[in-house]
Amino acid sequence: MTVRVLIADDQGMVRTGFRVFLGTQPDIEVVGEAADGAQAVELAAELSPDVILMDVRMPVMDGLTATRKLLGGEPGSPFKVLILTTFDLDDYVFEALRAGASGFLLKDASAQELVEAVRVVAAGDALLAPSVTRRLIAEFVRLGGPRSPSPRKVGHLTERETEVLTLVAQGLANLEIAERLYISEQTVKTHVGRMLTKLGLRDRAQAIVYAYESGLVRPS
Fold first, then answer.
1. Which residue ranges form the domains of the chain, and what is each CATH number?
2. Which of 71, 85, 125, 199 could serve as 100's disulfide partner, Cβ 3.0–4.6 Å?
3. Boundaries of each HTH luxR-type domain copy (predicted)?
């Protein structure tokens, strides 16, 4: 199945570079380019891409506002947004996660990293490596911890699912969680999937934000 990609960035050279990289892949098709967030929203509705590469800072409408309009924080959106960033993890990027973005891609990523990022997000996974997750946690600590506690409860998760969510929020990969809990990696994947479904979350990225904002995990 071909992954349809929309590129949203106000720098023409960046868009061209990404288009060239992705155009060499038989399973990826760049269906459009947007120079600002407003255009990205319009083209997304018109072209129905699977993945939107979204720059953070753009004129007319920024990437955060565009992500909110496209996703609304809901798990059922047909779009998946991959935020393009220089990785100065500020509050703006956290808001992108809250809006439903599936992860981050460094603007200086290699061609292969770009291609793999698109495939990972298109497959429904979050692009948050453990090292990236730990940086997010560190930034969450710097910003002062949960500022908008969620009214949702985790009581309808099983004890094991709650354990898995806690470890996901601490930046552990599935294999590390499996070793910590003495279960198989496949079992961890099953627990993660059920946990996301029960909480109505899109992916691992939203699970991390949820765990901190609900108070299940405290920055330390």
1. 3-127 (3.40.50.2300), 140-213 (1.10.10.10)
2. 71
3. 150-215
